[in-house]
Amino acid sequence: MLVEIANSRALSVRPDLLATPAEAVALLRTLALLPEGGTPTEADLDEIREFRSVLNRLLAGGEDTEVRTTLNTLARRVALNADFTSEEATLTAAPGTDRPLARLVIHLFRTVSDNTWPRVRLCANEECAAAFYDTTRSRTQRWHSYTDCGNKSNVAAHRARARAAKTG
Ligand SMILES: [Zn+2]
Asked: What is the CA(29)–ligand 1 centre distance, in A?
């Protein structure tokens, strides 16, 4: 879920997938972020985009307290008392919120507490920077797709090495 949300941002090849409720509804339903048959409001989308920008900052290595404090603030807005800043992360949910943002915060919280968060990474190809879920046992996957980005990087590295060898 986090991967799909992170990658929904505008890319050079396509616009933001969460730009309008009509455009966002399919993705949000697929990710079970909406109640059965529900549609997102503009306010829901604002919140999801805000969460997405914090998520992308976290993935880009922004493991600083400010990003985590922002997450806590987002959580409180949907009646979740989260603490992403401490080592012993905690989450207390007040009943009655079913907003997409609440579902996202709870999901992120679970990802952090069951230690799958380090598997959510950004592609090492800087031009791509797509989020992906690293399923390798060794947690060493570098590219979102070896075919699309790994080969390209290897070819570029090979050429650079060849150039360096030639110039000595
Ligand atoms: Zn990539």
From this structure: 25
- Which residues place a Cβ less than 5 A from the ion ligand 1? 123, 125, 128, 130, 144, 149
Strand 120-122 versus strand 90-93 pairing type: unpaired
Half-sphere exposure of 42 (CA within 13 A, CB side): 0
Task: Decide: helix, strand or coil at residue 125.
Answer: coil
pLDDT digits (tens, 9 = 90+) for 126-140: 888 899 999 999 999
CA distances from 105 to 52, 68, 139, 148, 155 (A): 11, 12, 24, 31, 39
Hey, what are 115's tokens?
Answer: 């230690």
Expressed in angstroms and rounded, the spacing between residue 149 Cα and the centre of ligand 1 is 5
pLDDT tens column, 45-55: 999 999 999 99
pLDDT profile of the chain (168 residues), mean per 10: 96 91 95 91 96 93 83 90 82 80 92 90 91 93 91 74 74
In whole angstroms, what is the distance from residue 38 CA to residue 87 CA? 36
DSSP state of 13: T
